# Entry
Amino acid sequence: MISAICISVASCVIAAWMIYTILSLAPWLPTRKSDIARIGTLSGLKSGETFYDLGSGDARVILLLARLYPDARFVGVEMSFVLHGIACARVFFSGVTNVRLIRGNIYTQSYGDADVLYVFGVRRSINSPRFLGVVAQLRAHSRIVLYNFTLKRWDGITVRDAPEGQTPLTIYTVPE
Ligand SMILES: C[S@@+](CC[C@H](N)C(=O)[O-])C[C@H]1O[C@@H](n2cnc3c(N)ncnc32)[C@H](O)[C@@H]1O
# Structure
């Protein structure tokens, strides 16, 4: 009886968390490993620049890119305590020194130092006024890289990369 109650409560908590993340940005669904190097190349990331992964999950994107671009800085922002804990352990054991992880809400951070924002969020979230508030913080020439989904409207340069059999990436450059 007690175990049935515990299972029900745990299921409700997990379901509520899933719904919350869907409404906020996206539930945890990792970027395919085979797409990660493409993200670095298409973002035009250079030495000394700062790359953010908004909703960084287990940090797989920034960890791989941090090895490929040792002279760039990487920041992951993740709301889930569990995923953040896993990400911290992965970063610690990887030995990379150019990664910083923040446990928090992407909508309450500052992105004034960002050169690239990578986001794997659902269509509704990335077109919400809250997300557009994040984008509004970016400096001219910064890039936003979106996985699979796209913005409904953008006034700057847009590049779409959709090779057959791979997930589309769209890169938006912030105008002057
Ligand atoms: C689709 S997953 C992408 C994970 C990672 N970026 C990757 O590509 O492998 C979206 C992530 O965003 C996190 N998330 C959802 N809403 C968030 C919010 N408001 N602030 C921070 N993280 C959030 C989820 O917990 C989940 O890990």
